Amino acid sequence: MSVPDAMPLPVAGVGVGEELKQAKEKEDAEKYSFMATVTKAPKKQIQFADDMQEFTKFPTKTGRRSLSRSISQSSTDSYSSAASYTDSSDDEVSPREKQQTNSKGSSNFCVKNIKQAEFGRREIEIAEQGIFYTGRESGNQRDLHDGVRQSMEKQKQVASAEDMSALISLRKRAQGEKPLAGAKIVGCTHITAQTAVLIETLCALGAQCRWSACNIYSTQNEVAAALAEAGVAVFAWKGESEDDFWWCIDRCVNMDGWQANMILDDGGDLTHWVYKKYPNVFKKIRGIVEESVTGVHRLYQLSKAGKLCVPAMNVNDSVTKQKFDNLYCCRESILDGLKRTTDVMFGGKQVVVCGYGEVGKGCCAALKALGAIVYITEIDPICALQACMDGFRVVKLNEVIRQVDVVITCTGNKNVVTREHLDRMKNSCIVCNMGHSNTEIDVTSLRTPELTWERVRSQVDHVIWPDGKRVVLLAEGRLLNLSCSTVPTFVLSITATTQALALIELYNAPEGRYKQDVYLLPKKMDEYVASLHLPSFDAHLTELTDDQAKYLGLNKNGPFKPNYYRY
């Protein structure tokens, strides 16, 4: 009887079952031979605390650019966030060294790349009109069925909750009157698609504008290019150096034949520059509008010292700014910024938030919702009590600095996180700032020879101690959400509308209405800004009857709350 080739011949002294078993083992050994070196290698015990540095070293291959950068490079390199379109072909060339002109032949601007203007214009249009309806009828839309077209027309009438329809509504209502005709506004804000809508609204209302960025990392290069193409004198790009930052501000202010008479500031740097470098120009300013805690603090200091010679509007403490931009915006954007830069999972993480004002409240609410264990530091007993009632533990930073995974500052103060704190942090602790200024984290103390800076991702630096410990620093201590991510368009519409109204009010106010001091936005204007945004939610206000209004001692049309009311 013949035996099939596939059947192994029996071996003397070995049963058929045992023979098949051996054949299978031999087949598996050949199949997985590549694992032989792994299985034969001696087992090595994993070590943690003492040898942590072994896990944090990256080999650098010959001929490959090292990830480690010098301190000076780390502080000035330009990196673009996911929110910004970039053309890397000329990243190494400073915009100050380029000769660029727009389609009209003007070179009165300095941006990264004027060729990005078309892309930036599209972003501005989306910010204006919402991502669900562009307002521009394409060829495909012209071919739509009538029912679909009617649905889109209805969508056009009911504003999307992600657009800036309220600011556009203000533009349409007031552009015929040109309430800012003759106004020469010099501005220093974040330059994003949303602020571009504000700038173009001011221009539509009759103003001439010159603009720079208040943050070296928050500029969307394509948006700056679109503004320059439209004729706005804008001097800004993402990744400016400190010298570039002040140069851009100076170019906005110092121009032959043009003198600013209004200032729109975010952080107080522009106001400070004009006050120090151009005192004659400062004296002729008709009004200043400031939207940040830091900038408002500087204005109050000038006022207290008797050096504020122009009226100023404190937009930061208006209700629509405090409750919506500071609270609701930060509640959403804090997570966006942290996720984009670190991919961190928050469930079970220990986070300390320094400051429980409106920004801090927003950050804590978001972190708590994702399961983080949140601690609060506070100097104000009222805010501290609010934190306790909201379920957070109020501590001193020194008490928890060794154990927390994330440190977030949002106080508007300086040196909240010092070198001593940074030295005591655990390995891989994430440190970031949600306040406007970069003074809250003592980043300067980290620029020493014994520490190594390693850029690992856009706006993410690993600061490495001699023992191998790493601290993850985001945006070099600057404002996290606008440096590393984006913020909701709808919330920025509220702030931008408030700023526009404040400028109109100060510019058109009769002489004597506002003295040389700092003022809050009138309550009636706050309510007007809010009312412009209610249609986005199809909200319907209840109206007082004459008898009810008389009983409460109110005007039926508002204001509905006294100035001392706490929302």
TrEMBL record:
Q: Any idea where the S-adenosyl-L-homocysteine hydrolase NAD binding domain is?
A: 326-487
**Origin: domain of life:** Eukaryota
Region (Disordered) location: 56-107
Q: Name one GO biological process term.
A: angiotensin-activated signaling pathway
Q: Is Nucleotide-binding among the key words of this record? A: no
Q: Give the PROSITE patterns listed for this entry.
A: ADOHCYASE_1, ADOHCYASE_2
Q: Which keywords describe this protein according to UniProt?
A: Cytoplasm, Hydrolase, NAD, One-carbon metabolism
For this chain, one GO molecular function annotation is: enzyme regulator activity
Q: Which Gene3D superfamilies does the record cross-reference, listed alphabetically?
A: Adenosylhomocysteinase-like, NAD(P)-binding Rossmann-like Domain
Query: What SMART domains does this protein map onto?
Result: AdoHcyase (SM00996), AdoHcyase_NAD (SM00997)
CDD domains linked to this entry: SAHH (cd00401)
As for family, the record states:
Belongs to the adenosylhomocysteinase family.
Entry-linked PANTHER family: ADENOSYLHOMOCYSTEINASE, S-ADENOSYLHOMOCYSTEINE HYDROLASE-LIKE PROTEIN 1
- Protein name (Swiss-Prot/TrEMBL): Adenosylhomocysteinase like 1
